[in-house]
Amino acid sequence: MNNSCTLNGTQNGTKSAYLNEIINLAASKNPNEPEFLQAVKEVLGTLEPVILKHEEEYKPIALLERIIEPERIISFRVPWIDDKGQAQVNRGFRVQFNGTLGPYKGGLRFHPTVNQSIMKFLAFEQIFKNALTGLPIGGGKGGSDFDPKGKSDNEIMRFCQSFMTELQKHIGQDVDVPAGDIGVGGREIGYLFGQYRRIKNNYEAGVLTGKGLDYGGSLARKEATGYGLIYFMREMLKANSMELKGKTVIISGSGNVAIYACEKAQEYGANVVAMSDSNGCIYDKDGIKLDIVKEIKEVKRGRIKEYKDSVPSAQYMENNGEIPAVYTIKADIVLPCATQNDININAAKVLTENGAKAVGEGANMPCTNEAVEYFLSNGVLVAPGKAANAGGVATSALEMCQNSMRYFWSFDEVDKKLDGIMTNIFAQTKKAAEEYGYGNNYVAGANIAAFRKIAKGMKSQGLI
User: What is the pTM of this model?
Assistant: First the structure.
């Protein structure tokens, strides 16, 4: 059984001329979009056995050419007034990548690094992630280069209202359903939903997910991505004769995903010893006190180094090199829950040398392709983001269901459904990996399981 995978396209070569042709086509058409090309190569590089089996079926209908090309990219300016009365202008995006399985579904990211390449990479990943959930949702993503850090509530409200004034032309509960992502939490979703309702003059609750509980949101949505990551990790470890209990865990990030991954990991008996933000990490050998992290991040919106003020015995480690400090700490399990390309090849080597047994991607593409290759070739299990962090979008789809029914499920009901979805995602991933000779390479398994479902739908619906 082969547990490695080709991620670098024609650099390593494939037996499928069609696959090589598509990887080259993607590179020639998107020369200045490194994140998008990285995502395309990561997916296509694992599909070789599927493509070889179905090449005569896929090539005449240009299936791969279509699956790497967004159905629609919307780009727009977002003018707004800051608290000093000065006009500001940002750029907004919505990438409606593939609607084969249902309405486009994916979050909005407000962060200064946002550009078209990042939006396309996130939307492309979302197609496969959403397919794995088994729910009727297509893939999309959006956002802006607006930075909410340091902005007042009124500035954020004015920006969100301007952003939605344009975005509302392109979304709807049966068309495209955005949610939150980095920089877009409950506050931002509230302002966006209010402006949508104001313009449309109707209460279309299902047009956005991640809403507040008092106006159509779902219980367990806040916890879903982090909890879902741990449910997937539980299944993956169990399939490889391991468990979370007693394992040392480090988590990059200290936002929503990281916090609730930590909470659930601790419930399963893991010892989470580190969390981080963009400046550095906190190391607490006795185990992270999550109530303190929640107070710092969810209430004060502060920095992780403030943890040491409450726990003097903890150690704060500043980032001062190409490897974030959190990845220099010894651990059995690594949960990157911050942002893309957080773990490069050098970080992967350090983590492996320090005894890492499994990596669970809580963020979208937090490991570079080279890092994933290194982990797999050295026997480190990898739970790929498109499978492992699908709990957020799965629960968003459950929120849409509740909105359609005008009904609310209890926290336990939603959490039980989430657990079932994540367990099923792992089962699909494992089955596809084994069927195509990839062993316990769940990166390949997730890509293949999702691709087969999307490909079948695209073939059925004709050349569109």
Answer: 0.92
